[in-house]
Amino acid sequence: MNINNLKILMRNLNRQKGFYFLNILGLAIGIACSTMIFLFVTYELEYDKYNQRHDKIYRIAVDAVAGNTMIYQTGTPAPLPPALYAEFPEIEKITRISDRSEIKTKYKDIVFNEDRIFLVDSTFLEIFTYSMIKGNPKTALSEPFSVVITESVAQKYFKSEDPINKVMSLDGEDYKVTGIVEDVPDQSHFHFDFLLPLTSFEGYYNQDNWWWNSFACYILLHSEADYNALEAKFPDFIKKYLFEGRDYDEIASKGNKWEYYLQPLTSIHLNSDIAGEFEANGNQKYIYILMVVAVFILAMACINFMNLSTAKSAKRAKEVGIRKVTGATKTKLINQFLSESVLISIISLVFGIIIVESLLPLFRDFTSKNMAIHYFENPWTIPLLIFFGLIIGILSGSYPSFVLSSFQPIKVLKGGLTKNRKGITLRNLLVVIQFSISVFLIIGTIIIFMQLQMIQNKNLGFDKEHIIVIKNAYSLGNKSDVFKNELRKNSNIIEVAGSHRMPGMRFNNIGFGAEGLDDGFTLNLLCSDPEYIDVMNFELTHGRFFLKEFKTDTAAIVINEAALKLIGWEDPVGKKLNNWGETRIHFNLIGVVKDFHYESMHEKVRPQAFMYLGGSYSWEESFISVRINPGSEKAVLDFLETSWNKFSAELPFTYSFFDKDYDALYNNEKQTKDLMVIFSVLAIFIACLGLLGLASFMATQRIKEIGIRKTLGASSRSIVWSFSKEYTTWVLIANILAWPVAWIVMNRWLNNFEYRVGLHWWIFIMATLIALLIAWLTVSTQSYRASRTNPVDALHYE
């Protein structure tokens, strides 16, 4: 852009402040929104890439059918690594991971309860990349009863002391600190604070049961190895080791299967949601949704620019005519107008970045993602931002530039331009595109909101409200029953019960057989006290729940309706079930509970069973659930903490509200819904800015027509309607275009849920009415102002 063209632009900016303000504001908001979405998407896509050899690290996962049960899990057996090393030379290293939660850790008089404990093979620190602050990654986990801790843990327990070779007590055992690693990066699909060598757990890491799946197994391939070729060898491997040469084809003919497959490390966060995940992952589909929203918002901002620029073209028609008469070529004019567009885009980019930096702290808190624009740390950031501004400027200004440069001097100077309808047709088309996008976003937001409301308000089969969950219950030991009885004395406490898991958590999945049933199956187990049914308010369909006065209930079992349907019994009470394994136990079925959603509603309710906590087949008590009277939270919490300190003063009192824990299953959906609402509102606001500017310009263009109409007796209402009805037509056309696209996209999204809302006709009508209301309000404000103009002033308008 030369100095003369810059002067022309500055004069136009000064002369038409409102027009350029709307253009710059719309582009700035569009750039800010798309930039924040891009930051979020980029953050999600970068998970686990901090590992130096992330492209060669894979997790082995299971896809199986056992009897009538479908199994998708990360769990693999203990003897898997030696067999993998023996069969597949393309594997360089293997590590198993078994997580432990809620163990008591102690150093001197410093005691905490920790819940991020990994039991790993010694190769763990050679596969995954963590900077060792102290210690040797190749030897730090080579000896039993050694421990590697993170930098945060070292500061927490040892302050200014050197932790190396110091002894900590972990779950009652002494461990020597042999290494300190940096804290696990946020963008990791798992996080730990303590690494313990699996060799510390004799009989666990080296047991030889191929059907006891307790470990997540990660492999590192040699640089030249092809993971697809390795994966293709797994069927023969499974036949040899898991089925020990038995006829796998015969087993498969009955509908059973057991398959291993490889999950690339960097795909786990967004593409894996199977049993055994260490943490809740993201969702690739939501990333696609947000990317589409970002493109839509940016497109709407660019359309605004094009619409307003072509609408204003008549104002610059004489300028173009005179310049052409004095020798300016079409190419020079295109370059001038494109340069103006690019400069306006760069100005908008600057304001957009200011908006981003102002809102980024709130956006980080809202998404719990530590996002930032690294302007100087990354040498590509500033060049990419400039390139981004150039592209937006060229895309936004290309058509207006060609329109302005194509004016014929004779027609322009004679005032013939106003008779040309081409620009009006284009502007109407752009309005249709903008409102099609707006309607799509409105429909999408309504459906996502409804689905989330349905999930949160659907009858779960239990009552999640007014329950306080006390953690670290195992630390009470044999005082647990006394502690619970102490709590029951409080009049605000309705009932108390212990369990080893809570709905919403990962249950232990165990193989079973049933009386009269040839095929095996698996059940997800929850061990609990007899009072658990009164705390959670489960419903019984057959028989009863556990009772303390029935001593034989320690070997009893209660199943859900899904398990009963799987087994096929008509009269289940009194029948026998037995576990798989070398030590077989037969359980007396005493009751059936109505299906309840102990997992996310993405999944159909799966077969599940209750065992007596502390019975013949049970896990350690980890949680105590306390149902309280509504409104008594503060008083009860004070009482709980006081009581806890009497019975387990060594560990701090920790708790949570069960409804919040359970609702965390849908954090992805809630976050997507909130982001959709925010960015949809901003997208509609951008559309309104463009429509406002366009309506203002059209009102100015038709000022003489308004004056004549008022002179002939037209009312302000009729003038407003004459302006609004044209836009009503275009908004209705926009709805016709948006409806089928929105139906297809949202129907595919809802298919991710086993339980979903319907795509009701009224949702689409509501979106139409909202779009019409927005258009009417936007256009009416300008047309009403024009209709109030004095006819005398209007007819003297030049």
Structural class, from secondary structure content? alpha+beta
Which range does the strand content fall in? 15-25%
Number of strands: 25
Overall shape: it is elongated
- In whole angstroms, the N-to-C terminal distance is 32 Å
Low-confidence stretches: none
Q: What is the CA-atom radius of gyration, in angstroms?
A: 34 Å
Please state the average pLDDT score: 84
DSSP summary: helix tally: 25
Helix content: 40-55%
Sheet of most strands: 14 strands, mixed
Seen as an oligomer or otherwise, the chain set is single chain
Structure description:
The protein is α+β, with helices and mostly antiparallel strands and 798 residues long. Among the domains are: 97-208, no CATH class; 472-653, no CATH class. It is built from 25 helices and 25 strands. The strands form three sheets. Strands 1, 2, 3, 4, 5, 6, 7, 8, 9, 10, 11, 12, 13 and 14 form a 14-stranded mixed beta sheet that branches. It has a six-stranded mixed beta barrel with strand order 17-18-23-20-22-21. Helix 12 (330-367) packs across helix 13 (381-405). It is elongated. The mean pLDDT is 84.
What are the SSEs and their pairings?
Elements: H1 3-15, H2 17-45, E1 57-66, E2 69-73, E3 75-77, H3 80-87, E4 91-100, E5 103-107, E6 110-114, E7 117-120, H4 124-127, E8 132-134, E9 146-150, H5 151-158, E10 167-170, E11 173-181, E12 194-197, E13 213-221, H6 227-232, H7 234-241, H8 248-253, E14 257-264, H9 268-271, H10 284-311, H11 317-325, H12 330-367, H13 381-405, H14 409-413, H15 422-457, E15 467-470, H16 480-488, E16 493-499, E17 508-514, E18 521-528, H17 532-536, E19 540-543, E20 556-560, H18 561-567, E21 576-579, E22 586-593, E23 608-612, E24 623-628, H19 633-647, E25 655-657, H20 658-663, H21 667-701, H22 703-711, H23 716-750, H24 761-787, H25 791-795
Parallel strand pairs: 7-12, 9-11, 18-23, 20-22
Antiparallel strand pairs: 1-2, 1-13, 1-14, 3-13, 4-7, 4-13, 5-6, 5-10, 8-11, 9-12, 10-11, 15-24, 15-25, 16-24, 17-18, 17-21, 19-22, 20-23, 21-22
